[in-house]
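Okay, any thoughts on this one?
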Amino acid sequence: MREAESIVFIIDDDSLYRASTERLVRSAGFSVESFQSAADFLNSRRPNVPSCLVLDVRLPGSSGLDLQRELAEAGVHLPIIFVTGHGDIPMSVQAMKAGAVEFLTKPFRDQTLLDAIRQAIERDRVARQQRARNADLRRRYESLGPREREVLKCVVSGMLNKQIADELGATERTIKFHRGHIMRKMQVRSLAELVRMAEALAIGGRE
């Protein structure tokens, strides 16, 4: 993926610093959108592309740490790089524990910020791919009927057709029929692949 197909959001109330950071990030080939407050950022429409947030810790209104917490509570998965001229160790520890990619104290080298941005963009790209894959698996699973889901749980727990039939009060032929439907709906060709999908969906054996 080209860097131009990703975007870096910058939130900083210092207009001069914001402008210089925009120029730096654009010079590295990234698209950029900048904001002077957390509220402005929250009210904006964000493209659905790999992205990250370069966030000043101290902002008017909600602080950078407040915004980090608010995004997490809203289920917004966005890698954050904190920048500050007034950082301290407890503050950086709090930010990193909450999932920040980096915590940079001004002044820092331009390359240090660009390296952190590339790391954050890559993290978001991988996470987006994983979320899309999981959503696709969930759609496949939700296409199964209630009985097929029961059979699936038994299958991935390692039970044989005869055991599943005894467990569910059905015939082996019926279980084989259900298994065939399950394999088609889940779009798999092997039991091992079906088990891996079940693990990804956190579907265990019999409840």
